[in-house]
Amino acid sequence: MNTITVEHLADHRELLPTIQAWFESEWPGYYGPGQRGNAQSDVLAYCNRGGLPVGLVAFREGEACGFAALKSDAFPSHPHLMPWTGAGYVVPSLRRQGIGAELMFALEREARSLGYPRLYCATGTSVSLLMRCGWQVIDRVAHDGQQISVFEKAL
To answer: Measured between alpha carbons, how far is 58 from 135 in angstroms, rounded to an integer?
Structure first.
């Protein structure tokens, strides 16, 4: 049995270079050379506990295999909503094995523990995952040339 656990990035700072590399490989249009994102500073910002932003790392049999964050940075079309999930990543060879769902459930628990009654996510790629996890589509918007679904989950 492949046991998946989720822990705070703040407790695993040794993984900062790994997660930075994940960001740069998964989102080269944002974190790649010459682009506007800075993966190193963004990952470091997620090393919190008890407040936003906060990053969570998924482990399978002791090996880091995924990451997700809870953040206050609003999606541009919905600046009045907060908090947001983001930076969802699972090692490509391990996708579709429940790791992303475990990360989403952990983000929900984290948001609830911080006192938030709702959680939001904007995605063009993880629609089926969010639907399976009980999220509701509240809007669809065009963003950076693609169609994005905006989701909400009552906690």
So the answer is: 20
The superfamily (CATH) of domain 4-116 is: Gcn5-related N-acetyltransferase (GNAT) (3.40.630.30)
Q: Where are the domains of the chain?
A: 4-116
The model carries a pTM of 0.93
The answer to whether the beta carbons of residues 53 and 70 sit under 8 Å apart is yes
Q: Using alpha carbons, list the distances in angstroms from residue 7 to 28, 59, 93, 152.
A: 26, 8, 21, 23
- Print pLDDT tens along the chain (155 aa): 579 999 999 999 999 999 999 999 999 999 999 999 999 999 999 999 999 999 999 999 999 999 999 999 878 889 999 999 999 999 999 999 999 999 999 999 999 999 999 999 999 888 989 999 999 999 999 887 888 999 999 99
